[in-house]
Design goal:
The structure holds two protein chains of two kinds.
Chain A (H helix, E strand, L loop, with lengths): L2 H4 L3 H22 L4 H21 L3 E8 L4 E7 L1 H31 L7 H20 L3 H19 L6 H32 L4 H7 L4 H17 L8 H4 L5 H10 L1 H11 L1 H4 L3 H24 L3 H22 L2 H32 L15 H14 L6 H16 L1 H26 L12 H19 L2 H11 L19 H18 L1 H18 L1 H24 L2 H22 L16 H16 L6 H21 L3 H24 L2 H9 L4 H27 L5 H10 L8 H9 L1 H22 L6
Antiparallel strand pairs in A: 1-2
Helix pairs in contact in A: 2-3, 2-5, 3-4, 3-5, 4-5, 4-11, 4-16, 4-20, 4-21, 5-6, 6-7, 7-9, 9-12, 11-12, 11-16, 12-15, 14-15, 14-19, 14-23, 15-16, 15-19, 16-17, 16-18, 16-20, 16-21, 17-19, 17-20, 18-19, 18-20, 18-22, 19-22, 23-24, 25-30, 26-27, 27-28, 32-33
Chain B lengths: L3 H23 L8 H19 L1 H6 L1 H26 L17 E2 L2 E2 L2 H54 L2
Antiparallel strand pairs in B: 1-2
Helix pairs in contact in B: 1-2, 2-5, 4-5
The chains are: A mainly alpha, B mainly alpha.
């Protein structure tokens, strides 16, 4: 058996499987819309199986150069870190797809949309998963950037899935702009790293252990892009807006995938980032700010999904803080936190969707007392909520234990901040769960499909089971937290029944959290006022103002440009003329602009030039369109005679032909215009202002063109070397006509570009005249 | 309307023009002209028929109908010549047979891949010119027909109203 079957390269297999999934699902979905969900579940399960299998196999990698001159390589590595995030993307992905299998048809029915739109949803969801899988495996920074942008593009279509709603469209645009513009910073950072360290390969960069400031700045740029993706302050505003997406999208993108991509990026570069204390400190500040802002707003929001969205901002703040703490605890803790958080947060998002499906309510104040009607959902999400607030016997307990340990090691002040952060978390999670499931019954729940509750129960049970059986989680996190070249990470977690710092801090958190929930009546108005100020004056306003301003500028320019045909020509000619004119003025031209001598044999040439010039002046005289066309071709034909006189038969032939066919084209265009308009334009006297503007424009562009041509012609030909070389090579290329050989062979690449443009122009003409039909 | 003389001459000229185009295309590598010029010459020959016989006749020529497809066939040929060498691990545009090696002859025509590329350019240019002008021709025919229909409707309406007035 060939090697590729007995011992497959798992990195390649996983990438192929992941990208086959959206393709296959869409194709099957177009063929039979009812089968879309099934195909999506099956293909996601296959990807998950491959990731699971990779834990039993050796780390896989593939490194193929595909553009050697640019140093670009197709370089994938399925290491511990990649495996963990791929596991999250496919594992949570599978549950979300199972949930969406029932949710999306209902959603489409609610919105009176056709069920045929299912392939669009599942296709983009799986494309997102594939991009995520590619991103985590990419070891070449450019490849990584491609996948990074692909996640943003896929998320745009997912967030804007309800395209008939203005709200979803603007939210999708916001997410794309915030994460897409910041992605440019990532690209800049990557390019700086390349120029400083001489490589695109991340493993090679890490080995170099550079601590130059430029490298720090580059990493800072990448960090900004990553933090924007993880919805950290001040880029956090896109995440709550993105809740306009259908619930499965929120659950997937905003708990385990899209926002996780940001912290993944930081972790990928962490060995390099750790060398810069100021980067770590910046992350500490941003992390704590995000915890505070996200937590505070989450406590005041009424919309179910908004509460969770702001909680996600706050939770990823924890991860960023732990990265910023910088010690070994921090890295291990952050890794473990991402893993545990993805489990519980996706469960809570799915709960919100199921609750809305059952009661029709989206507000926390409109639901309540659902524990009796939906015991399974209450149990599943209760376990998840317990995990999020770090109650013992759940996996969540350990994520906070590691957080507390990391903070305490840095100093008691950080310990206090950590307890305060955890208290906020306790507050909003308790508010969410008790608000939904306890208290008086506010709206009767309808029964919901088991597909909507079982994923939540599965995630809740996983939270509980892994709270006892910590082995697998610890192993996954350890292998992910192990930095390349360093010793394997050790994560020791266990229940200790003693008064160590972590336990004391946890107890303090619960006590303070209960007090926070109990005292809601007293602090709620003040908190609401603060968040209202934040809503009005926060970064979202800046975003909106920038967007509006840019749109106004663009509209203005557009209005000037498209007012009429003349202004359209003017917008091209005027800037071109002015720029070229400036270039002529500012280039040293001591030897340019010379007048050569005249000889008797030049007489025909001079005569033809005079004819051309007269024809050019004559163009401006006639008013009837057909006469303008014919005088314009006069200019062209006399120019082609000049080419012939200059011993350039190829150019002359082409000039004659082009001039003829252009004349026919012009007449064709005139045929398309209604005769009455042509007649009207011919008779109408030109406006005086318009004439003056046209004259100024014509003089500017004509003068600059004249100067440039004069300057070029009075210089000696730049290199006869190249021409000699072409002459020498032409027989070797089986040719005798040097022009043809240059066009079809030496500069074939240019010609290819030009003919492609011709084909595209024809496509454009066809779509304008014949609405896209080719025959 | 054109005279009988122009019509006869343009019909007679069509084949010679196409022959000249073919000649320019084939001899491109040895003499003046290339695929681009050949494409324009051939399309001018076809367009001449349109100018002389009118848009309606022009639109009926099968060559005109299929011209846009020729563009894409040509684009495919040109791109294939450009990128096929990549499949064999060679740089793009590496021509076969390689420089200096003997090539098959047929008169002035040598069988080398750049000639194929030139043929692609010919098809693109020919398809573009004939296709675009054909599209315009068809559009004018459509517009004329619409206007005729409009005029007929107006006439009928007028007649109907006159009859209505005449009836007691």
């Amino acid at each position: 058996m060939p090697d590729i079957i007995t011992n497959p390269n798992l990195a390649v297999v996983l990438l192929c499987a992941a990208f086959t999934a959206p393709l296959l699902t869409t194709l099957i979905g177009v063929w039979r819309p009812a089968l879309t969900g099934v195909a999506a579940i099956a293909s996601t399960a296959a990807c998950l199986a491959i990731v699971g299998f990779s834990y039993a196999a050796d780390p896989a990698a593939i490194d193929v150069p595909w553009s050697e001159t640019l140093g670009l390589r197709f370089h994938l590595e399925l290491d511990g870190l990649a495996r963990m995030y791929a596991l999250l993307a496919t594992g949570i992905g599978l549950l979300v797809v199972v949930y969406a299998y029932r949710y999306i048809p209902l959603h489409l029915a609610h919105h009176h949309r056709s069920l045929d739109e299912q392939p669009r949803f599942f296709g983009f969801l799986l494309l997102f998963m594939a991009a995520m899988v590619g991103l985590v495996m990419a070891a070449d920074t450019i490849l990584q950037f491609v996948f990074w942008d692909l996640t943003a593009i896929a998320s745009f279509y997912l967030i804007g899935f309800d395209r008939d709603r203005a709200n979803s469209r603007s939210s999708a645009m916001m997410a794309l702009l915030v994460t897409g513009v910041s992605a440019v910073l990532v690209l800049i950072g990557v390019l700086i790293l390349r120029s400083e360290l001489g490589t695109y390969a991340i493993p090679e960069m890490i080995v170099l252990e550079s601590d130059r400031t430029v490298v720090g700045v580059a990493l800072g740029l990448i960090g900004i892009g990553a933090l924007a993706k993880s919805a950290q302050v001040p880029f956090h505003f896109w995440l709550p807006n993105a809740m306009a997406a259908p619930t499965p999208v929120s659950a997937y993108l905003h708990s385990a995938a899209m926002v996780a991509a940001g912290v993944f990026m930081i972790q990928r570069y962490y060995p390099m980032i750790a060398a810069f204390d100021w980067l770590l400190d910046a992350m500490l500040v941003i992390g704590f700010l995000s915890i505070a802002v996200g937590g505070l707003i989450s406590l005041t929001r009424d919309n179910l999904k908004q509460v969770l969205a702001y909680s996600t901002i706050s939770q990823y703040g924890y991860v960023v803080v732990m990265f910023g703490l910088g010690n070994e605890y921090g890295l291990n803790g952050a890794t473990f936190y991402v893993l545990a958080h993805a489990l519980v947060k996706s469960a809570l998002f799915l709960t919100a969707g199921a609750v809305t499906e059952a009661t029709g309510a989206t507000q926390l104040s409109k639901v309540g007392g659902l524990a009796k009607g939906m015991p399974l959902l209450a149990l599943g999400s209760g376990l998840a909520a317990a995990g999020l607030i770090a109650l013992p016997l759940t996996i969540g307990f350990f994520k906070d234990e590691l957080f507390f340990a990391a903070a305490w090691e840095r100093g008691p002040g950080f310990g206090i901040l950590a307890v305060a952060s955890a208290t906020l978390t306790f507050g909003y999670v308790a508010r969410f769960w008790t608000g939904v499931f306890l208290g008086p019954l506010r709206s009767d729940p309808r029964g919901v499909s088991r597909f909507l509750t079982l994923p939540v129960v599965a995630l809740g049970l996983a939270t509980l089971v892994f709270g006892f059986w910590t082995g697998p989680m610890v192993e996954i996190a350890e292998s992910a937290a192990t930095m390349p070249g360093a010793e394997p990470a050790q994560i020791d977690i266990a229940y200790h029944l003693d008064a160590r710092h972590e336990n004391v801090m946890a107890l303090a958190t619960w006590a303070l959290g209960i007090a926070l929930v109990m005292s809601e009546r007293w602090w709620a108005p003040a908190a609401r006022r603060v968040t209202r100020i934040g809503d009005a004056w926060g970064p979202e306003r800046l975003y909106q103002c920038t967007l509006d301003g840019l749109q106004a500028v663009s509209d203005r320019i557009h209005q000037i440009e498209v007012r009429d045909l003349r202004s359209r020509v003017a917008t091209i000619l005027a800037p071109a003329g002015i720029l070229v004119g400036l270039a002529v003025i500012f280039t040293p031209n001591s030897d340019a602009f010379e007048l050569g001598g005249l000889e008797r044999s030049d007489l025909p040439l001079v005569l033809m030039l005079v004819v051309t010039a007269l024809a050019a002046v004559a163009v401006s005289i006639p008013r009837a369109h057909l006469r303008i066309v014919i005088t314009t071709s006069c200019v062209g034909f006399s120019l082609s005679v000049i080419y012939a006189l200059l011993d350039a038969p190829d150019v002359a032939l082409v000039a004659v032909l082009v001039e003829t066919v252009l004349g026919v084209f012009f007449i064709c265009m005139l045929l398309l215009m209604p005769a009455s308009i042509l007649r009207f334009e011919t008779r109408e006297p030109a406006e005086r202002f318009g004439v003056r503007r046209d004259v100024v424009l014509a003089v500017i562009t004509g003068a600059t063109a004249f100067l440039v041509v004069w300057g070029v012609l009075s210089r000696p030909s730049p290199s006869t070397e190249l021409i000699d070389r072409y002459e020498e090579l032409t027989p070797l290329a089986h040719g005798r006509d040097i022009v043809t050989v240059i066009l079809a062979d030496f500069r074939g690449f240019d010609t290819m570009g030009e003919v492609t443009v011709i084909a595209l122009v024809m496509l454009g003409v066809m779509s304008l005249i014949r609405k896209g039909r080719l025959r | 309307m054109t005279t009988e003389m122009t019509r006869t001459t343009s019909r007679i000229l069509l084949l010679p023009i196409l022959m000249v185009a073919l000649g320019v295309l084939i001899k491109g590598y040895a003499d003046v002209g290339d695929g681009f010029s050949a494409g324009v010459i051939a399309s001018l020959g076809i367009v001449l028929q349109g100018v002389v016989f009118g848009a309606k006749e022009f639109d009926r020529l099968p060559l005109v109908r299929f011209a846009p497809l020729a563009t894409f066939a040509g684009l495919f040929i040109a791109l294939a010549v450009a990128f096929a060498p990549v499949l064999f691990g060679n740089p793009i545009f590496l021509h076969q047979p390689v420089s200096g090696a003997e090539a098959q002859h047929f008169g002035a025509l040598e069988f080398i891949t750049p000639v194929l590329f030139d043929i692609g350019v010919f098809l693109i240019v020919f398809g573009f010119c004939v296709g675009t002008i054909g599209a315009v021709a068809r559009e004018t025919v459509r517009q004329e027909r619409e206007q005729e229909q409009l005029a007929r409707q107006r006439l009928e309406a007028r007649r109907a109203s006159l009859e209505g007035r005449n009836a007691p």
